Amino acid sequence: GAPRCTRLAPLRTRVLRCPGSLWPPSAMCIRDRAGAAARGEAAARPVALEEEIVSEKAAEESHRQDSANLLIFILLLTLTILTIWLFKHRRARFLHETGLAMIYGVLMGVILRYGIHVPSDVNNVTLSCQVQTSPATLLVNVSGKYYEYTLKGEISPHELNNVQDNEMLRKVTFDPEVFFNILLPPIIFYAGYSLKRRHFFRNLGSILAYAFLGTAISCFVIGSIMYGCVALMKVTGQLGGDFYFTDCLLFGAIVSATDPVTVLAIFHELQVDVELYALLFGESVLNDAVAIVLSSSIVAYQPAGDNSHTFDVTAMFKSIGIFLGIFSGSFAMGAATGVVTALISFSLFTKLREFPLLETGLFFLMSWSTFLLAEACGFTGVVAVLFCGITQAHYTYNNLSTESQHRTKQLFELLNFLAENFIFSYMGLTLFTFQNHDFNPTFIVGAFFAIFLGRAANIYPLSFLLNLGRRNKIGTNLQHMMMFAGLRGAMAFALAIRDTATYARQMMFSTTLLIVFFTVWVFGGGTTAMLSCLHIRVGVDSDQEHLGVPESERRSTKAESAWLFRLWYNFDHNYLKPLLTHSGPPLTTTLPSCCGPVARCLTSPQAYENQEQLKDDDSDLILNDGDISLTYGDSTVNADSITSSGTSRRIVGNSSEDALDRELAFGDHELVIRGTRLVLPMDDSEPPSSLVDSARHGPA
Amino acid sequence: GAPRCTRLAPLRTRVLRCPGSLWPPSAMCIRDRAGAAARGEAAARPVALEEEIVSEKAAEESHRQDSANLLIFILLLTLTILTIWLFKHRRARFLHETGLAMIYGVLMGVILRYGIHVPSDVNNVTLSCQVQTSPATLLVNVSGKYYEYTLKGEISPHELNNVQDNEMLRKVTFDPEVFFNILLPPIIFYAGYSLKRRHFFRNLGSILAYAFLGTAISCFVIGSIMYGCVALMKVTGQLGGDFYFTDCLLFGAIVSATDPVTVLAIFHELQVDVELYALLFGESVLNDAVAIVLSSSIVAYQPAGDNSHTFDVTAMFKSIGIFLGIFSGSFAMGAATGVVTALISFSLFTKLREFPLLETGLFFLMSWSTFLLAEACGFTGVVAVLFCGITQAHYTYNNLSTESQHRTKQLFELLNFLAENFIFSYMGLTLFTFQNHDFNPTFIVGAFFAIFLGRAANIYPLSFLLNLGRRNKIGTNLQHMMMFAGLRGAMAFALAIRDTATYARQMMFSTTLLIVFFTVWVFGGGTTAMLSCLHIRVGVDSDQEHLGVPESERRSTKAESAWLFRLWYNFDHNYLKPLLTHSGPPLTTTLPSCCGPVARCLTSPQAYENQEQLKDDDSDLILNDGDISLTYGDSTVNADSITSSGTSRRIVGNSSEDALDRELAFGDHELVIRGTRLVLPMDDSEPPSSLVDSARHGPA
């Protein structure tokens, strides 16, 4: 179809590539050259060039092949969607769409691996020249004309003879950076965007504890267990290569990123206790960020002390510094850009409202530029995007017109949906198409044992400590549920596949893959059963979380969340909201009278108007259950109800104190007002059957 | 921030690369090897390897650089959007968003070219080895380890010494295939999708004539003029390389693709005469398809007669055959997949309606898979996508739920918007960042002269011939307007940049770039003025095109469009609609009684229900002006009005005859019914000032 093109500039997405272009070889060749220079010779010497001829590949053919490959993925997604629809239609909960995507991926992988064979005539002209260095770019002089070659990667010697055989398999394999630069951002952004901020901030303390302490704990627990396991393997001679403690720690960091997307979907569908939902969701969102930064700082540790893998205090502190640096940097950048976009939208969108398309476009571009900016500054784009999402949902979103709020929401929803299912189906595919798998029974068993212990060492001790602090205890059944909900997903996979050069990394990747499969299929499938046998309340309207909780505890929530929540709420509501959005009270009322003129010029006319009919942004601007479930079209009424309740709830002063009081006191009113809307008052001792059954009739 | 990655599989988008992987060099090396084999020697002999060392590039640095580069584009888009908003706000029509994007692109290009200098320490380790062949893949053996290199492209000798200098400039340059595989499809699809089918089909004959005959004519006219121009240059010794007649023809094909996006935007805003709109839009959409296939078949001609660029009858017929083959193939494939999706959606979406996200996802994936499928089968994906879009808008779209109709519309709207502005800003950028520009005054002047003549030779003769056929004449002022509206845009650029290897191609590319700039800025900007001085009616509601036209002409429209329109309408309404959508009459009523049982089992229950409250799909399921203008939020009432009129219009039998009669007769009723909604009855002799003015108050 398409005519030939001879000019090949680097692809834009190629440009999105990670520092990975710094391979070991080139590093090696630096050392080599250094040494050579030291010996005062020319860095690289002329060498013999022996070549092997393989028959010429028709590029047209390869292009078709390529399109066909991509088509495979599209069809996989299509198939997944069709089946998801069937499942949703039947309200089957034993298998989530992501699990489904993986299954299809596996099947397709089997077909590609064993079904299809590339005709042997489709080959490269390969010509291997013996040199000392392998630079990133090679200039080849073909009878006066110069051609530029770029380094693609290393080929393990045993693949040399059958380069063309697994050509096709390599074709259906991505640059791992695609995940970090194209697929993960929308997912993470959407997560931050759909964070239920009211509940999130109420449990901020606990969530942060689980996310930071917990992830660190589980990382080190898993790391040390795996180190023991590796030692055992070394003794029994199962170890085929180097495996240092840092590798174990890296593995710990990789598999510490939980991704309970399956569980949360079911939680939402069954309207499980909101506290639990908030804890789980908040933790999983944040610990993705923690895990990714943790892993990069562990990798940063590795080269220190020139590969003598001894413990090195300075290097360790360096790593810790890197961790703190990258994390806080990314956080700051994300939040900052979020605020900037809020400011832009604040000053503009009120006039822009006529053009929803432009708004949505701007919003999308701004979110993306956050990611790029962070990467450009050497921070972690994914983390930045997460916090940018949170900030934007909190401020920028308020300044969008209703029309484009819907558009934006739906756009990111779709992107998230596609990206997620794509990653999971790709996971399934790699199980068979990935070339360098290394399944080691001992390591695998050890790993499963480790992640179990690691999760336990994360949840139970922390919950115990937290319960000392919070009077609204995290019940043991909730703890068990959190323990159970420790699924591994997209982030773990992306981190694992990011680097599969060494023996250790390959083993880690294969094991991570199995862990993801197991947790998503088994734990994900067992969620409903687990919920019922743990007697966890379902069918709770997200506004009525106070209903179940007795008076004393409700007060305690206030006390518990006070020191953090109150502080935040106060600052945010009095200064940030008015500055960045058109909601919130006018600054003139909140700022001390001394800076009256400043306040006046900073306050937008809208603010005054709004003052009467103030909306509770904290609740109605969250993409909450109601909105998420726009996905499946049901219970948008839910969102409305919040809005209304919010509206009623917030005809209040500006001090956080009474605002909080009202907010919490309102539980009673709500009980009266909403008594009618109670879906199914269920006692804890309910058999799963009727639970599913009730859920089927309940929230529909 | 991201850790290093060593395993680099080809990027997915990389996979989307065109047959371009078949460079001349590798072709050369085939011949070389063939010759060598004939002489019975080893194909390639060991050769000396002389190398130049350039200092090592820090990959981390390059990654940041890359992100920064991408950031540039994002910021360009953001800037454009912000300014567009300003223009829309001020209702300024002298400069369209695309023109704006180009300006910003140019500015950014200047900055990149002259402003920024890459620090000289950021360089490649370059090492050039002297070999006879340059294969697509090179295996480099670095002390036992093998590394794979892939061919990136040729580097002109004079660039050799400053590879690192224009490194950055090359970084902000795309693989041309990105345009064909990522940016064009959404644009083309959206064009097909937003085709106003009722008016399109009514003028089908004329549109086809302009698109096929017209494009062919202008291609050959331009081609021969340019050949004369080239001959002149050869005489005056301005020609720096080969320039064959096929190159001229290719140039003709490239610049024959009109893209009056600017004009159409203004047309819509001013609600210009719908006939004109339909003619222009239909032509521009189709002639993109024609131009792209034409160019590939001309390229296919080139190699024939092994580079002896003599006229070769067989080769010419081969090219014609290729043209017909590719075009009809792509058309068939697009239509087919469109129908398939319609069938799937038909059988599914009625049940899927609860889950709009899934519907939109499916719709999106299906559209994309059409493109891939066509490419995989060696057809032209872009053309396939176009007709797929038309088909889907006609059938599949009917089966979507209202919710996801909105979502889908908005999604493709956004994609189209982003892609379009991206391409145009990139055009501006390339004016300065592209390395091998070749501006030749003679050629440029000749080209401008040629496109003018080509357009004229397209519009006027054809209009004359068509006017013999159609009694509803295309007025001379409309002809002048169509002449004037021959802007060149995205497609011309994409075709030109696709291959810039040879001297001829580079000159063509540079010239095309200038042509695009000129037409978009000058013609685009002058549209409003042109409209008024040509006395073209504006402020026509798209439903009321009958109002202006006297009774006689309206009848004539029927007569004119009869033979094609009637045939199509009949078949479509009686068989396709019922089969593929839930609208339309049940088959049982349309099929002959003999095949009653078939009809019964094929007819969906909805069809019977629908029979009472049938909707006129032809009108209300078109993404018509009203919908397009959702973009800027105004006149959705427009769409509703059509629907209502449609609903009233179609309580009719199934024979196309009386359906048509009613459809056309209804003009009168509409005149009565809608008399109130007449926005501004304006006489043709209106000064531009009040024209703009009226438009400002009118359709807002």
Automatic annotation (TrEMBL), chains A, B:
Residues 680-700 are annotated as: Disordered. GO terms for cellular component: plasma membrane; recycling endosome membrane. Residues 80-532 form the Cation/H+ exchanger transmembrane domain. The keyword Membrane applies. It comes from the Eukaryota. GO terms for molecular function: potassium:proton antiporter activity; sodium:proton antiporter activity. GO terms for biological process: regulation of intracellular pH; sodium ion import across plasma membrane. It is a multi-pass membrane protein. Keywords: Antiport, Cell membrane, Endosome, Ion transport, Membrane, Sodium, Sodium transport, Transmembrane, Transmembrane helix, Transport. Pfam families: Na_H_Exchanger. Its main location: membrane. It is found in: Cell membrane; Recycling endosome membrane. The chain crosses the membrane at residues 70-87, 99-116, 178-195, 207-233, 322-349, 361-390, 411-432, 444-466, 478-497, 503-524. Belongs to the monovalent cation:proton antiporter 1 (CPA1) transporter (TC 2.A.36) family. This is Sodium/hydrogen exchanger.
